[in-house]
Amino acid sequence: MQAFRLLRVFNSEAARGYAGSKVRVGRNSLRFFERDSLVDGLARELANERALPIKELTEAFEFFAVARKYLRRTPVVVDLCSGHGLAGILFAVFERRTTEVVLCDQRKPEHFAEVWRAAVRVAPWIEDKVRFVEGKLAKTRDQLPPGAAVLGVHACGVLTDACIDVAVELGGPFAVMPCCRAHARNPAPQGLREALGEDVAYDVERTYRAEQAGYRVRWREIPAVITPMNRVLIAVLRAATPAAGSPS
Ligand SMILES: C[S@@+](CC[C@H](N)C(=O)[O-])C[C@H]1O[C@@H](n2cnc3c(N)ncnc32)[C@H](O)[C@@H]1O
């Protein structure tokens, strides 16, 4: 069973079931976030704002917890199909080396305002670091900073592949948590789809594709109690190795 890395209170049997709840965070959630820490402080403010369902909060925090180690050396982070944008915002809040976060979605959701207010209250240093770009990914991808790290948290179906394509174009690392894989468009070979199942085969194919583009890909997970679509593909460009025979 995958442990919670940031919101460790949910590792207890008594609290665990609550982590995947679709109920909005609010006063009832405050008992889970009582520590004197930035993590709990932010969760409390999100609860005070009734900003989003508890599942969205735990998902973003635990996604950040698995991805941060691999992406934090890249100063610019773009969160594609960001919705409320909490995953990207967490990089601005917790990672000193993150200088800019770009949240991109076809539309800014209503509850972005609550998430943003809560985050700025506990981490005022993020105010000038984060911007929201509204528009379809196909139209906005040209405006994204080269070299940026790309996040794609439950960008539905083939949008996950679009997130990976953008990362390859920008030449930065990426972390994606695929969902709603479109099986009819699954590019994996039939044999793999039959043997491994559609979802795993799809992610295997994505892994090969990224490796061929020069990445080293790792598979990680957030706790399945939050969501069964919990696999995170994290890809970092392999360090350029000198070609054989080149002068040292
Ligand atoms: C399942 S939500 C995930 C949102 C967020 N990343 C999260 O973890 O909660 C998918 C998001 O993709 C956005 N989206 C869908 N099609 C898009 C497109 N073509 N370009 C940009 N955003 C798109 C939707 O507006 C929605 O916010």
Describe this structure in words.
The chain is an alpha/beta fold and 248 residues long. Helices cover 37% and strands 18% of the residues. The chain is built from nine helices and seven strands; from the N terminus they run H-H-H-E-H-E-H-E-H-E-H-E-H-H-E-E. It has a seven-stranded mixed sheet with strand order 3-2-1-4-5-7-6, sandwiched between helices. Strand 2 (100-105), helix 5 (112-122) and strand 3 form a beta-alpha-beta unit. The longest helix has 18 residues, at 54-71. It is globular and about 50 Å long. The chain starts with 12 loop residues before the first helix and ends in an 11-residue tail after the last strand. The protein binds S-adenosylmethionine. S-adenosylmethionine is lined by residues 56, 81-84, 105-107, 136-137, 153-156, 159.
Radius of gyration: 18 Å
Biggest sheet: strand arrangement: 3-2-1-4-5-7-6
| Distinct small-molecule ligands in the complex | S-adenosylmethionine
- Tally of contiguous helical segments: 9
Strand content: 15-25%
Q: Which blocks of ≥5 consecutive residues have pLDDT under 50?
A: 240-248
Number of distinct beta strands: 7
CA distance, first residue to last residue: 47 Å
Secondary-structure element pattern, one letter each: HHHEHEHEHEHEHHEE
Q: Into which percent range does the helicity of residues fall?
A: 25-40%
What is the general shape? globular
Question: What is the average per-residue confidence, as pLDDT, rounded to a whole number?
Answer: 94
SS content category: alpha/beta
What is the fold's blueprint, element by element?
Layout: H1 13-16, H2 38-48, H3 54-71, E1 76-80, H4 86-94, E2 100-105, H5 112-122, E3 130-134, H6 137-140, E4 149-156, H7 159-170, E5 174-179, H8 190-196, H9 198-212, E6 215-221, E7 231-237
Parallel strand pairs: 1-2, 1-4, 2-3, 4-5
Antiparallel strand pairs: 5-7, 6-7
Helix pairs in contact: 2-5, 3-4, 8-9
The structure holds S-adenosylmethionine.
